[in-house]
């Protein structure tokens, strides 16, 4: 087994042993009175070193962090509260649209800590004829500000079920400075330099699970949280038989005065799969992420979970449908006709459209299970269903497919209309009203938002949140593991991406309402231009000569050393398959494998990441970076 293949298991083994520290074996004896467990204490580190000499030193053994439970009711149900006097909707409709106070604080403080990280990363990258100290001089002298004096890096994670979760994990692990193999490959540190990470559908599962686990290393999450080898997927009998318990949790929410749907149950099911918590995420809130040590220390990117909205029961979702965001700081909307947000801990509250003052308030609505539902194979999952909302696949059941598959017809016998949607009280009701005959923001009159899987219209990369001018993003790593060319309700197909997710964002921005957003030129994935250029099988930079748009580094899932084209609905994976994902993803992220190594790739990554800041600094592009752009830029 190669060292890269072993990396995923090595972390898992340590993670599995960690919670028991000094305990190695469990002997179980059968008695009439029941099962008795006798724990035998041994010196774990000694035995681990005897069994696997490299494990104890290669990965620090420590207990995995549990998710933080902060529900005001102690369970899944939210609670209505007296509104704080200073609680208002942030309504930023005057350009330049400002960030929320919470997001601004996170990004600015993270940027302030980034100068030594940038220095270390650029040194290891192997840049030639490049003065790193001079490049960082403005930041050192005037303060580090993302997108102003230091580069602003973002990550976008596509949907695609557990296939997407594993592929994105493998790429991010290859960019993680905690991964010794990534540091040897000179790609480690990119994850820590990134300020934003967006995810929709399964991408939001990943971000939600990662954030609530104190941003643990990705390989270990499989053993300690996801457990894909244990045959207990979110659609397994082991999970489905707990339906009565999930129903009971949901019923308590309804009794508390809140609308519920099937997505709430889906959220609870996903919570058991993705949240490290004895109560399976019942009281874990997305806003609780703010209390994790790694979040407080501003080590990792701000997670943004994305969901689409349906304009009404049975109405169509289109490329122009509003896209809502969930972060540990806020629930918000960036749209040509409305830019607004509310603090995440007050999701479920309502405000006056006249003065933005909160009038009815709620806490505990941002249950994290709802977020991990961000992949709902039938429509929006709430947080998980909100992330659930980002992953609510059930929502297509509420659409107008003239020939739905058999299982979809079966579901319609039991579940009707908006019960497929993640139901979220609309905090922005009455906002974005049109003037002078303009129709205005399409959801302005909705009392309840109907949130659906962010991938419902095949725009399966959450890029739109990252091209907002206020966020000043310089480069986006677009990590794509979709199966393109197949209808959304067909999650049983094997395949790899063909650029459709990237192309559809560019298509969206041709609509009259969206034409002001800068975005690189992308060849059509519909007529085959994208694949004819081979962009679906190699890293490609888009926007290299576009001064107004962010650069996009497209990293598609493709075969290098292992098949990673599993169907979206495959929930269980063998160790061999998981190892294959991490090895294959490592090779893609580092552009190195057993037969090929691009020794300039780390430098080329650095060239792309500093390009916009180089221009702001009025510095010339080096010959090395020019050669990198010639090699990797789209033509």
Automatic annotation (TrEMBL):
Its EC number is 3.1.1.5. Pfam families: PLA2_B (PF01735). The lineage of its organism: Eukaryota, Fungi, Dikarya, Basidiomycota, Pucciniomycotina. Belongs to the lysophospholipase family. It comes from the Eukaryota. This is Lysophospholipase. GO terms for cellular component: cytosol. Keywords: Glycoprotein, Hydrolase, Lipid degradation, Lipid metabolism, Signal. It catalyses: a 1-acyl-sn-glycero-3-phosphocholine + H2O = sn-glycerol 3-phosphocholine + a fatty acid + H(+). It is an enzyme of class 3 (hydrolase). Transmembrane segments: none annotated. The keyword Cell membrane does not apply. One of its GO terms (molecular function) is phosphatidylcholine lysophospholipase activity. Residues 82-635 form the PLA2c domain. One of its GO terms (biological process) is glycerophospholipid catabolic process.
């Amino acid at each position: 087994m190669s060292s890269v293949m072993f990396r995923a298991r090595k972390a898992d083994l340590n993670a599995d042993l960690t919670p028991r520290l000094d305990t190695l074996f469990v002997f179980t004896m059968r008695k009439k009175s029941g099962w008795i467990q006798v724990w035998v204490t041994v010196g774990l580190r000694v035995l681990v070193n005897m069994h696997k000499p490299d494990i104890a030193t290669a990965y620090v053994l420590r207990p995995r962090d549990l998710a933080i439970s902060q529900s005001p009711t102690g369970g899944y149900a939210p609670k209505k509260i007296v509104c704080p006097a200073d609680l208002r909707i942030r309504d930023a409709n005057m350009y330049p649209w400002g960030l929320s106070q919470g997001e601004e604080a996170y990004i600015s403080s993270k940027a302030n800590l980034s100068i030594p990280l940038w220095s270390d990363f650029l040194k290891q990258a192997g840049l030639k004829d490049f003065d790193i100290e001079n490049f960082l001089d403005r930041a050192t002298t005037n303060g580090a500000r993302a997108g102003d004096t230091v580069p602003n890096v973002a990550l976008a994670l596509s949907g695609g079920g557990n296939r997407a979760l594993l592929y994105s994990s493998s790429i991010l692990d290859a960019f993680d400075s905690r991964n010794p193999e990534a540091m040897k490959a000179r790609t480690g540190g990119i994850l820590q330099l990134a300020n934003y990470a967006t995810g929709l559908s399964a991408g939001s599962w990943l971000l939600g699970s990662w954030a609530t686990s104190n941003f643990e290393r990705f390989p270990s999450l499989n053993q300690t949280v996801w457990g894909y080898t244990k045959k207990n997927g979110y659609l397994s009998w082991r999970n489905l038989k707990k339906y009565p318990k999930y129903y009971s949790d949901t019923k308590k929410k309804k009794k508390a005065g809140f609308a519920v749907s099937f997505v709430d149950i889906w959220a609870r099911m996903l919570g058991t799969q993705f949240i490290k918590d004895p109560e399976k995420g019942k009281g874990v809130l997305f806003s609780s992420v703010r209390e994790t040590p790694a979040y407080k220390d501003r080590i990792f990117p701000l997670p943004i979970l994305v969901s689409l909205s349906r304009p009404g029961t049975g109405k169509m979702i289109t490329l122009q449908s509003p896209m809502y965001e969930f972060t540990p700081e806020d629930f918000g909307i960036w749209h040509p006709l409305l830019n607004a947000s509310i603090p995440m801990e007050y999701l479920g509250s309502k405000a006056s459209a006249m003065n933005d003052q909160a009038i009815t308030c709620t806490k505990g609505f941002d249950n994290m299970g709802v977020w991990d539902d961000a992949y709902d194979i039938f429509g929006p999952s709430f947080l998980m269903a909100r992330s659930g909302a980002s992953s609510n696949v059930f929502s297509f059941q509420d659409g107008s497919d003239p020939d739905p598959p058999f299982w979809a017809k079966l579901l319609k016998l039991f579940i009707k209309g908006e019960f497929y949607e993640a139901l979220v009280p609309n905090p922005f009701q009455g906002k974005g009203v049109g003037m002078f005959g303009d129709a205005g923001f399409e959801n302005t009159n909705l009392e309840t938002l109907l949130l659906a899987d962010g991938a419902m219209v095949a725009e399966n990369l959450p890029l739109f949140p990252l091209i907002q001018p206020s966020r000043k993003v310089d480069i986006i790593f677009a990590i794509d593991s979709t199966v393109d060319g197949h209808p959304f309700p067909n999650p049983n197909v094997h395949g790899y991406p063909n650029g459709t997710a990237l192309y559809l964002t560019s298509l969206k921005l041709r609509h009259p309402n969206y034409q002001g957003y800068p975005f690189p030129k992308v060849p059509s994935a519909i007529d085959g231009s994208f694949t004819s250029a081979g962009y679906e099988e190699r890293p490609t930079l888009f926007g290299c000569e576009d001064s107004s748009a962010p650069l996009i580094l497209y990293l598609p899932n493709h075969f290098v050393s292992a098949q990673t084209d599993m169907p979206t609905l495959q929930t269980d994976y063998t160790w061999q398959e998981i190892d294959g994902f991490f090895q294959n993803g490592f090779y893609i992220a580092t552009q190195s494998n057993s037969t090929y190594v691009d020794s300039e790739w780390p430098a080329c990554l650095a060239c792309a990441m500093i390009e916009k800041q180089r221009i702001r600094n009025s510095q010339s592009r080096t010959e090395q970076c020019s050669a990198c752009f010639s090699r990797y830029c789209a033509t």
